[in-house]
Specification:
By secondary structure, the chain is mainly beta. It has helices spanning 2-5, 39-42, 69-76, 209-214, 232-235, 263-269, and strands at residues 13-16, 24-28, 32-35, 56-60, 66-67, 81-87, 92-95, 103-109, 113-116, 124-128, 147-151, 157-159, 171-173, 181-183, 196-198, 206-208, 219-220, 224-228, 250-254, 260-261, 275-281, 286-289, 297-303, 307-310, 318-322, 341-345, 351-353, 365-367, 375-377, 390-392, 400-402, 414-416, 424-426.
Length: 430
């Protein structure tokens, strides 16, 4: 048999059975495929029939609970790439120190455990549609690993620590899992050559600030990334440069730990994203928007914000402030030359001066609902907001309404005053 095996053509097809076991099939063309193999019963003798020119082998419906080191090493002695597919019996896999495989791919199995010894050969590892519920800690032993892909697995918490000694890792793809939380239990900087992390198609993503500081990557998040507990003055803004700029991503900051949201902070992040939300950040009290800020949309809610300073800005189109301690409409809103929407809601504003909106020449929609507005004045001497189409002042405390204050907005289509305490409506003194 051995003598003839050396002369078998590359299209060899074998159908073999051992005893009463289900026959396994082997077919080799561009790649060798072996179906229904039970290594414990069938052995590994069929490997001698794999043409020497072949690098890859695929096992379909591999009938073994543990793909052990002996099995892996036997494959690696003849081939460099191993694929295991559609194998519901497979639950555990071991990569040994002497395993010389360069590529290992496992798809559609019940794999839940991977044991990895220190290994300097494996370059690519891809696991998909398995029962793996955590990043295998042993990944740190894969010294040559440059690509890791884990897809469609029930991983909820991602600990980046295993990647801190994978010095060759350039691409980390963790798509379509159930990742909700990211942490890093390693005290040392991680993956110095990392170029790409893909976390798209996971569940709502939360990222703690220090993770981004110790992992150099261009981070891809679906729709919006969430950064929690960031301290800008201490943690810096290094993580921003790794946000993907291939699409328009937004960033949500939760519990931003800075009294002043400075122009430097917003200018930096505005280089990489268009949308920023700052939520549930009780430390925040001041906001400064500079001329250089390239953000399109800015939303701040649930903070102790009291003061807003705006320099001349021709980029920001939407500003939303809600549930803050803002007591008056900031006079510097007049410098938002590109703003089409301004929404200030659920703030303790009592007196509304319309003057700041008279220089916002692009403003279409002004929303000032659920504040405590009782008085409306206009200290401006020029006509206001020529493009204004809609003003909403619902759910305030207005008692006297002077419609003449709004008559200078020539294109106004709707003014809403629902759920106020209006007792008197005036127009031209009547």
């Amino acid at each position: 048999m051995k003598a003839s095996a050396l002369h078998l053509p590359s299209w060899i097809i074998l159908v073999l059975s051992t005893g009463n076991a289900q026959a396994f099939n082997m077919a080799c063309s561009a790649i060798c495929i072996i179906d229904n193999l039970n290594p414990a019963k069938d052995g590994m003798f069929m490997l001698q029939y794999v043409p020497r020119s072949h690098r890859s082998i695929l096992f379909g419906n591999l009938s073994v609970a543990e793909v052990d080191a002996k099995f892996m090493d036997a494959i690696a002695d003849r081939l460099s790439e191993l694929h295991i597919a559609d194998s519901p019996m497979v639950q555990k896999l071991t990569v040994s120190k002497r395993c010389n495989l360069s590529h290992l791919i496992v798809t559609k199995s019940r794999l839940s455990s991977i044991v990895i010894e220190e290994n300097e050969s494996l370059n690519l590892l891809r696991i998909s549609s398995s029962l793996l519920n955590q990043i295998p800690p042993g990944l740190r032993h894969l010294k040559a690993l440059s690509y890791l892909g884990i897809f469609s697995c029930p991983i909820v918490t991602l600990d980046l620590a295993p990647f801190c000694t994978t010095r060759s890792l350039k691409s980390l793809r963790l798509r379509k899992n159930k990742i909700r939380y990211i942490l890093n239990s390693s005290p040392t900087p991680c993956s110095p050559v990392m170029e790409d992390i893909d976390l798209s198609d996971n569940q709502w993503l939360q990222v703690t600030s220090y993770i981004c500081m110790v992992v150099a990557f261009r981070m891809k998040c679906k729709n919006m990334c969430v950064i929690e507990n960031l301290r800008p003055q201490k943690d810096g803004s290094l993580m921003f440069r790794y946000l993907s700029t291939s699409e328009s991503y937004g960033v949500k900051f939760l519990n931003l730990r800075s009294t002043v949201v400075t122009e430097v902070f917003l200018d930096e992040i505005g280089q990489y994203v268009d949308d920023v939300e700052i939520e549930k950040s009780p430390v925040v009290q001041q906001l400064i928007i500079s001329t250089q800020c390239n953000l399109l949309h800015l939303h701040i809610s649930d903070s102790r914000l009291r003061f807003i300073q705006i320099e001349g800005n021709v980029r920001l189109t939407s500003l939303k402030i809600s549930s803050t301690l803002l007591e008056e409409v900031p006079a510097t809103l007049r410098y938002l030359h590109a703003a089409t929407v301004i929404d200030i809601s659920e703030c303790p504003i009592v007196t509304l001066d319309l003057a700041p909106f008279c220089s916002t020449l692009s403003l279409h929609w002004l929303k000032l609902t659920k504040n405590k507005i009782r008085y409306i004045v206009n200290s401006s001497t020029v006509p206001c907001s020529p493009l204004m189409k809609q003003i909403e002042l619902d759910e305030n405390h207005i008692q006297v309404l002077n419609l003449e204050l709004f008559s200078t907005s020539s294109r106004l289509l709707r003014a809403g005053f629902k759920k106020n305490a209006i007792k008197l409506v005036m127009y031209h003194g009547v």
